[in-house]
Amino acid sequence: MKKIGFVGGISWTSTLDYYKYFNQGVNEKLGGLSSPECIIHSLNFSDIQERGWTNSFDLIFDACKNLVSHNVDAIVLCANTAHLFADEIQSKIDIPIIHIAEATAIEIKKEKLHKIGLLGTKFTMEMDFYRKKLKEYDIETIVPSDKKDIEDIQNIVKNELGKGLVTKESKKKFIQYANALIERGAEGIILGCTEIPMLINQKDFKIPVFDTTKIHVESVINFTLDSVEKSTDNNL
């Protein structure tokens, strides 16, 4: 198996899911006591919050360099917003970054959808790094049109979900925000923040919902086991 380096702690609550889903997924495929080799560089999320995401490149990049120094085969950024820096970091390191938006776009294309609603942090929704990646796959992305809604989503993600707090009131709000995107023509909803699945999931909607955490991890599992599966096939 290939060794994976995770940049976590952004936030720790979603990093728990990454570690759990990654280990469960590999074990389901290989059985027995099999588990993947990985290294987690868990950042202090408070440092990023104090600087702001747009000023946190060096924190993310230093974590990636540390993982590279431990001979990992690929880097996984355990947050959608952290992919703000994915292309720049990729240009500076020699191992692949498994991109969450690209993995999500591939899943959306499998469903033959063209217009998608995106819920995430303020930065993921307002900046173009995520939408540009989806556009490469001919996917149109829409986000909440009301700035107050975007600020409310940011507040819930940062001050509730980032601390592991889940409330019925916030769940109701997120369903309303998603339904508003559906009314504007969204054929599916991207849960574009790795904490959002703590609140809402496919059971809450009739149209496809894309859990970016699970999609990302599945892509990581496929990368991790690629050489194992090829080796197994060659032995048949």
From TrEMBL:
Keyword annotations from UniProtKB, A to Z: Isomerase
Any Pfam family hit: Asp_Glu_race
> What highest taxon heads this organism's lineage?
Bacteria
One MF term from GO for this chain?
amino-acid racemase activity
Against InterPro entries, the record matches this protein to: Asp/Glu/hydantoin_racemase (IPR015942), Asp/Glu_race (IPR001920), Asp/Glu_racemase_AS_1 (IPR018187), Asp/Glu_racemase_AS_2 (IPR033134), Asp_race (IPR004380)
Q: Which NCBIfam families match?
A: asp_race (TIGR00035)
Protein family according to the UniProt entry: Belongs to the aspartate/glutamate racemases family.
- Protein name according to UniProt: Aspartate/glutamate racemase family protein
Task: Tell me the organism.
Answer: Flagellimonas nanhaiensis
